[in-house]
Amino acid sequence: MYLRKISNLLLAGFAFCGFLSAQEGDTTRVTIQTNVGTMKAILYNDVPNHTRTFIERAKRGDYDGTLFTRVIQEFMIQGGAPDSRNAPPGARCGFGDRSAEIPAEMNSKYFHKRGALAAPRQNDDVNPEKKSDMSQFFIVQGKVYRGGELDTLERTQNYAARQKALKEFYVPVRAELQMIKVSNRREYIKRLREINAKIDSVILATPGHLIFTDEQREAYTTVGGCHHLDGAYTIYGQLTEGFDVLDKIAGQPKDAYDRPKKDIRIERVTID
Fold it and tell me: CA 13 to CA 162: how far, in whole Å?
């Protein structure tokens, strides 16, 4: 955890360092061939049940011949649903398969940066355990954020918790701190650090808090992604090639239900 600037105590968000990433030896490779191009990805072996299930379904050909049924620019592309195979033009499909659900395996070191391969699921009202529907998959396209946007998101999400902590730890000693600031700058900074640390702990202990790691900030402000999906879906892989194909699919003309007007077909999914 680090403090951005002491002088920004009342305005700054709080963040912590987290440079975690998968090692090459901890992955399996997959190729997704479509009628508009080929994408390649790695599967994370430390998300074992999802990776194993995806591999089993791919080897059985469960995804072959299905469609990308939901594509949203600057968000994601979703495909693989069994009801999309041979679906007539314009028909609604991509509803998934509740019998294909498996328990969530969310790993905090993976987040929804551009190219993340993840499992869709039913909404919380019918699926509070966030079980994954492995009959389908989605790949994040996302958008690139400015650093200031991430700061604003943190401040907005954490506002209530920060205000509560300020009232408890800062307001009672504010006058005293102003006096110390004049007479002993070093002590003033020390006290601010202590208060900042207490505020930090309150925010981190608050359910639903938002603090971007350095790795997330780097990814979301360079390659982009969908930060609002973090912690809600299980990520089990990452695109390594074919980002132009991802963009092409995401930008397809679509109907009112986000199905491409021209079928984007998954011809074959192979495990390399």
Answer: 9
